[in-house]
Automatic annotation (TrEMBL):
It comes from Eiseniibacteriota bacterium. Pfam families: Aminotran_4. It comes from the Bacteria. Pathway: Amino-acid biosynthesis; L-isoleucine biosynthesis; L-isoleucine from 2-oxobutanoate: step 4/4; Amino-acid biosynthesis; L-valine biosynthesis; L-valine from pyruvate: step 4/4; Amino-acid biosynthesis; L-leucine biosynthesis; L-leucine from 3-methyl-2-oxobutanoate: step 4/4. Belongs to the class-IV pyridoxal-phosphate-dependent aminotransferase family. Keywords: Amino-acid biosynthesis, Aminotransferase, Branched-chain amino acid biosynthesis, Pyridoxal phosphate, Transferase. GO terms for molecular function: L-isoleucine-2-oxoglutarate transaminase activity; L-leucine-2-oxoglutarate transaminase activity; L-valine-2-oxoglutarate transaminase activity. Acts on leucine, isoleucine and valine. Its cofactor is pyridoxal 5'-phosphate. InterPro entries: Aminotrans_IV, Aminotransferase-like, B_amino_transI, BCAT-like_C, BCAT-like_N, Class-IV_PLP-Dep_Aminotrnsfr. It catalyses: L-isoleucine + 2-oxoglutarate = (S)-3-methyl-2-oxopentanoate + L-glutamate; L-valine + 2-oxoglutarate = 3-methyl-2-oxobutanoate + L-glutamate; L-leucine + 2-oxoglutarate = 4-methyl-2-oxopentanoate + L-glutamate. This is Branched-chain-amino-acid aminotransferase.
């Protein structure tokens, strides 16, 4: 990949948009990453995306990206489903992401949006005879749902798109119209988020989140064959619940009415992180407050993604180079400390 950094920006200029973007192997000014009205993906939804988070760890003066190689592995798999030949590996994309974040100089929590899409300005529905474009941008980012005291969800009248219509295991641009319809209807009706059922009437996921419930002492989540995204936050949560917290986790279909009788319900996702649900369709979940398992899980998850849990440190990729310097201790014996520095 071309490692040339091609940009000149005013680092002090305030803007809600990123200053920079990564486009086909180069870091460029964000506004150069623009495309015409006839771009194939804009017209026909022939693109895919991923979502990653960077977490600032003030104690280490370091920005950690959570599970980037795993995210990019799924990204490349999704590209194969759209018959895209990207010409890059998950390792290449991870290196490009780190280059972009170092150039941006973020020292706060951020969200990264990688995309691959057919950039040809061409009329005609197809996947063949087109050329993919790969890009990324990163923005400062806080809470997605913004409901620290619990989320109120509505079961949507919109049915989740099935794998035989648009594969749910890929984050395809066009398929998220399904999620947008459900989300906006829920918000306009006074809810925070929507839950979608599949063709069999089983709960599959939120508009952009996987769903878990606690019932009779067992944590349950829909299987990946129930038209759900194979989320890495989902996989992380299952591992934390089983190995770190000692809970039984079962993957099986969930009926709508089971949610109403559950002791706890929570949503998971890169953007949503761990979002406890306290009400569903105007019914209280449990006692209507955040449950103890969801509360503990949320705390453990935030510690994990910010690189503070040694056993899961390998999931966290540091952005900035680490230098080792010696500092005098009170005893007069020199100690080695670590400090992160930018490599821009």
């Amino acid at each position: 990949m071309d490692k040339k950094v091609d940009w000149k920006v005013d680092r002090k200029a305030p803007s809600p948009l990123p200053r920079l973007a990564y486009l086909d192997g180069r870091v460029v000014p964000y506004r150069e990453a623009s495309f015409g009205l006839l771009t194939h993906a804009l017209n026909y939804g022939t693109g895919l995306f991923a979502g990653l988070r960077g977490y600032w760890n003030a104690e280490e003066d370091q920005l950690f990206v959570f599970r980037p190689e795993d995210h990019f592995r799924r990204f490349c798999e999704s590209a194969r489903l759209l018959r895209m030949e990207l010409g890059v590996t998950p390792a290449d994309l991870t290196a490009g992401l780190l280059e972009l974040l170092r150039a941006e100089g973020y020292r706060e929590n951020c969200y990264i949006r990688p995309l691959a899409f057919y950039g040809d300005e061409s009329i005609g529905v197809r996947l063949h005879g087109l050329t993919p474009v790969v890009g990324m941008a990163a923005v400062r980012f806080g809470s997605y749902l913004g409901k620290e005291d619990g989320v109120h969800v509505a079961v949507s009248s919109w049915t989740r798109v099935s794998d035989n219509v648009i594969p749910a295991r890929g984050k395809f641009a066009g398929s998220y119209v399904n999620s947008a319809l459900a989300k906006t209807d829920a918000v306009l009706a006074g809810f925070d988020e929507a839950l979608l059922l599949n063709d069999h009437g089983h709960v599959c996921e939120g508009s952009v989140e996987n769903v878990f419930m606690l019932r009779h002492g067992v944590v349950v989540t829909p299987p990946v064959t129930d038209d759900v995204l194979e989320g890495f936050t989902r996989a992380t949560v299952i591992q934390l619940l089983r190995e770190d917290m000692g809970h039984t986790v079962v993957e099986r279909s969930i009926d709508r009415t089971e949610l109403y009788l559950a002791d706890e319900v929570f949503l998971t996702g890169t953007g949503a992180e761990i979002s406890p649900v306290t009400r569903a369709d105007h019914r209280a979940i449990g006692d209507g407050r955040i449950g103890p398992i969801a509360a503990e899980l949320r705390a453990r998850y935030m510690e994990t993604v910010s690189g503070r849990v040694a056993r899961h440190r390998a999931w966290c990729r540091p952005v900035y180079a680490v230098t080792r310097e010696r500092e005098p201790m009170a005893s007069g014996v020199a100690a080695v400390s670590e400090r992160s520095v930018g490599s821009t």
